[in-house]
Amino acid sequence: TATPAAAFFLLLTTATLLSISIASYADSLPYIWPLPAFFTSGNATLSVDPDLSLSYSGNSAIVYDAFQRYKSLIFKHATRAPGPSRLLRGPSFDVSVLQIVVNSTNEELQFGVDESYTLRIDKRDSGSIVGAATIEAKTVYGALRALETFSQLCTFDYGLKTVQIYKASWYIQDEPRFAYRGLLLDTGRHYLPVDVIKQIIDSMSYAKLNVLHWHIVDEQSFPLETPTYPYLWKGAFSKWERYTVEDAYDIVNFAKKRGVHVMPEIDVPGHAESWGVGYPDLWPSSSCKEPLDVSKNVTFDVISGILSDLKRIFPFELVHLGGDEVNTDCWESTPHVKQWLKDHNMTPKDAYQYFVLRAQEMAISNNRIPVNWYVSSLK
Amino acid sequence: TATPAAAFFLLLTTATLLSISIASYADSLPYIWPLPAFFTSGNATLSVDPDLSLSYSGNSAIVYDAFQRYKSLIFKHATRAPGPSRLLRGPSFDVSVLQIVVNSTNEELQFGVDESYTLRIDKRDSGSIVGAATIEAKTVYGALRALETFSQLCTFDYGLKTVQIYKASWYIQDEPRFAYRGLLLDTGRHYLPVDVIKQIIDSMSYAKLNVLHWHIVDEQSFPLETPTYPYLWKGAFSKWERYTVEDAYDIVNFAKKRGVHVMPEIDVPGHAESWGVGYPDLWPSSSCKEPLDVSKNVTFDVISGILSDLKRIFPFELVHLGGDEVNTDCWESTPHVKQWLKDHNMTPKDAYQYFVLRAQEMAISNNRIPVNWYVSSLK
């Protein structure tokens, strides 16, 4: 990618301004971010039961786990324990049940998955003694976004020591404005432990971001285990700064539970010097190590092997192939590559195009949609 | 405290060099930090069972919880699942049981609590089919330190995908060189959420630090709830940047489970401007707000009230009363305080001494040992 320190932050919000005055809204709690596509609110304040229960008839672990996670977030401060006396007093909270209805049992997380939802939080119905908030969504991923919104509406009141929802009743209809809402992590220049990556994914879900663009590998290091070419991760910064295949699975599954796609990137041919630590044949020569040697079959065998390994780990249909910042001096200064260019009647620019297109074809033959940096677009 | 950005780091290791060559040790794994008081190691490599079980006959939740925490840390990478086939193959790991023996059932965490332990990790005994590591400690807090050392000896091997202990057999006898191994957190100048404080306490336990010196309050903000004087936390940065009494209990209990004392500090009389937001009488005048008004009884009533609230929350026998950087100009420029000095035949320096000693007496009458900054030592 373009700059060594890059943590490219592609942030696309669902904000739609509607007819609400931002000036007056900014002064009044609660904050919802990003702003839902449509919402109405009122002037009631509702208390939320610390024993908030889930009413959900489906069997998705994604929903059950998310409810527990958000409950921990909402009640991170100790609240007045209801205690046994509560049973004598009867229900004393306005919202004691969160009802979740998901219309589809399909949990596949693919690009463009439906993330829409409706969230209603009403005052206690005079006909009912149980206060309820209701989430309706087409998929579990919509339900995750609704839980995030619900949690943002829940505010701890330090004086009363209860969690409150201000400006109820709420009626929210929301769907993301953009299908791709991404964050790039570069672990090729700076190793991040698995736990840190998980924290970042957690924080993405709080902002309703949905694509972790994992720039795994770069010139400086190759931290990922690739069983097809097991010496590649010899190019890691150290033997400790690595990801096993199991680590990568773990990250993908953790992200899926938060509605976050993981798009892997291997940036070829210009950002791949580290590959040659394990397989020096990938370097044009031991003194000129980048871009990858376009003249050798092994180069494309290794890319193909990596792509098939990535396919097993990452179900997301997009795979990023980089393609930026290719300085072809190495190809021209290395005799056998220069000869290959001549034999194939190619300029270095032709060879670059050949390389990028051949890598794209490999991705497509792996049933993946290839993505490249804009600078690598070919005329 | 002396500097606004201060995060004063008092780090006292148990390192004893013994006769071991540091040069040769530095090149060879594993690292133990701080270095135990005494240890011997060998040349064997032992594998650790991902299903490592605990053999412990006591009933301390501190030990059970710590074992689970450290097991998660040791096996943070997925290891080869033993699978059903393992039963057919018989035990395949060298260390499959961690035995913990604690001699005392007393879990009180006080200054000078015994943190010594012995840790043995042997090769499988030819007479036994179950590999074991053994921890012996006088208190549960020694067992915590031993678990930390054990976890530091456990290294994930990325090639074999198992956790290994290098340089076994290990025999370690350890006790801290200093009873007070502290870290200061200043939440009076910079609010830290409860979860962040917990992360810091976790990291302290990894370095075997044992005192969180919580500089809760300062000029800039008063984030702690004090039921005796409930308006004090009006001096918080915001209504969100506060700690309830329950939050503070939560922190103390979290720290206790990691063998970490929490020593609260209220820094009087020079670092207490924020107190007057809720109780303006504590300021000498509305234009001169520091140090606290030495001439009024309410000043000492409030200190006494805070100290009795702190006593209920913090069982640690030390309480810090600050006392540094007192500029007495306010006392001399405010007519009623100046008159009081004159009536009592005191110089400002006398009044400062009177203030510090009176606060110390209040701590002592609350069965607490008062601690002050060195600059406040009185001749």
Q: Report strand % of chain A.
A: 15-25%
Give the overall silhouette of chain A.
elongated
The CATH class of the largest domain in chain A turns out to be: Alpha Beta
Q: Rg of chain A, please?
A: 26 Å
The largest interface is: A-B, 17 and 17 residues
Classify the fold: give the CATH topology of the largest domain in chain A.
TIM Barrel
Main sheet attributes: strand count, strand direction, barrel closure of chain A = 8 strands, mixed
Assembly state (oligomeric): homodimer
List keywords for this structure.
hydrolase (chains A, B), Chitobiase, domain 2, 2 domains, Beta_hexosaminidase_sua/sub (chains A, B), elongated, TIM Barrel, alpha/beta, 31% helix, homodimer, beta-N-acetylhexosaminidase (chains A, B), disordered N terminus, 379 residues, three-stranded parallel sheet, 19% strand, 13 strands
Short characterization:
The first copy, chain A, has 379 residues and is of the alpha/beta class. Chain A has eleven helices and 13 strands.
Detailed description of the structure:
2 copies of one chain form a homodimer. Chain A is α/β, with parallel strands linked by helices and 379 residues long. Helix content of chain A is 31%, strand content 19%. Chain A folds into 2 domains: 22-174, Chitobiase, domain 2; 182-376, TIM Barrel (Alpha-Beta Barrel). Chain A has 11 helices and 13 strands. In chain A, a hairpin with a 4-residue loop joins strand 6 (154-157) and strand 7. In chain A, helix 2 runs parallel beside helix 4 and helix 5 runs parallel beside helix 6. Chain A is elongated. At the A-B interface, helix 6 of A face helix 6 of B. Chains A, B: GO terms for molecular function: beta-N-acetylhexosaminidase activity. Chains A, B: Belongs to the glycosyl hydrolase 20 family.
